[in-house]
Amino acid sequence: MAGETILIVEDSPVSLKLTAFALRAQGYQVEVASTAEQAWSSLRFLKPDLILVDIVLPGMNGLELTSLIKQDNRLRDVMVVALTASEIESGEERARNAGCDGYLTKPIDEQTLTGIRQYLDFGGDAFAPPARGAETRLTRGQEASPQPIALAIPESEMEDLKRTFLMDGMVQSRQLLATLNQSFDEKQTALLSHRWAGAGGLLGFPKISDRARDVELMLLTPPWTPARMRVALTKLVLSCIS
Hints:
By secondary structure, this protein is α/β, with parallel strands linked by helices. Helix content is 51%, strand content 10%. The longest helix is centred in the C-terminal third of the chain and has 24 residues, at 155-178. The chain is globular, with a radius of gyration of 18 Å. The termini are far apart.
């Protein structure tokens, strides 16, 4: 039976809102933080049953936050699950080394919610195979790509989120293209593309999510060239208007 407290640490406003909505719809008590610093401050007074933390965050990243949590005597037994839209092969190993109890890729879907329930019911090493009789694995590896969970969010609000997401994505990706040969900011571009990959999946825009992930992976696995980046960013812009 749901009712446990889950802290979500996520810098994308869209992903944070929809993930919180999905978990509250399941009956969980949800606390939110948009930065690792904000989460760490909240944890001085809060001890949740589970923490979902995005790996890529501005300032302190999610793995650094996890290390702090696991070094704290009061919090070290709280389960921490790394949540990310990236599929870098080293992601799971980095999450484990930082002390995470599990690793999940976005978007949040029915399998993810089942996995979260299993964390809370059984605990243990979430990187290991699930308990006998479990309906889903807690880590990546499913053959079929899961669909975003159908959220019981008001249709008008969902449409507003989608319009804002598409407009912001188109404007910001065009701005990145314009700076490619001048003052291109790799770190900011990786952060934005990571946000788009996660939010695009949650809002039902898999093409945008895939194109944003291509940009992020290119930046995280150098070397890359301006020509290749221009092609990737152009595809991202087109995916927002097609």
